Amino acid sequence: DIVMTQTPLSLSVTPGQPASISCKSGQSLLHSDGMTYLYWYLQKPGQSPQLLIYEVSSRFYGVSDRFSGSGSGTDFTLQIGRVGAEDVGIYYCMQGIDLPLTFGQGTRLDIK
Amino acid sequence: VHLVQSGGGLVWPGGSLRLSCATSGFTFTNAWLSWVRQAPGKGLEWVGRIKIKTDGATTDYAAPVKGRFTISRDASKNTLYLQMNSLKTEDTAVYYCATDGYPKLFDYWGQGTLVTVSS
User: Fold this and answer.
1) How far apart are CA B62 and CA B68, in angstroms?
2) pLDDT at B102
3) What is the chain B residue with the closest CA to A63?
4) How far apart are CA B69 and CA B91, in angstroms?
5) Which residue from B minimizes the CA distance to A38?
6) CA–CA distance from A80 to each of A11, A34, A63, A107, B82 (Å)?
7) What is the pLDDT of residues A59-88, one digit of tens each?
8) For B87, how many CA atoms within 13 A lie in the half-sphere containing its CB?
9) Would you place residue B48 in the very low, low, confident or very high pLDDT band (cuts 50, 70, 90)?
């Protein structure tokens, strides 16, 4: 199984400041088709998870442009510009290149 | 897009339960579908997936549930199912259904349903 490791596991951010979450995979997520299958989800308190970013850097419909994804191979980053109260929750990365699909442990973000 | 789940509850170890996920707002026959679970206070764990008919309607499962859980779909009802047999206490979790399929894996989710396996 591909192990996904997120850092940090928790993050406390002053409103209006940026935040960054790292995700490292146990093997390259670059497929032979040229795509890299790394995803980011946010689970807000009491809600189902929601897709933020697919294939490393593509924002899902309706996702704020304050969210951006980057990276390649085994190292990936989710950046949130100008964090607000609506961004509170747990962020998960996930690999989609191989079964079983596996998630990172999650990074809890709260507001100072 | 809507995914509305039903069927959770309390069950004894060794028992069975079937979860349903009624869908609307997209072409059911064109969508892969998955189940993802979340144990209390824990992270997300993929349970399994079912592909569409033209991809063989094949299923894949995570190792902890393989041989005990069965995913199926009914195109006449636009509904996804998860049949869970030989349940163990470690299967206690909120179970989510989600649309699946590249490039946007898990782009829409159900509201989740709690399954508690306890004596």
Assistant:
1) 11
2) 86
3) B107
4) 11
5) B105
6) 12, 26, 11, 13, 36
7) 999 999 999 999 999 999 999 999 999 999
8) 22
9) very high
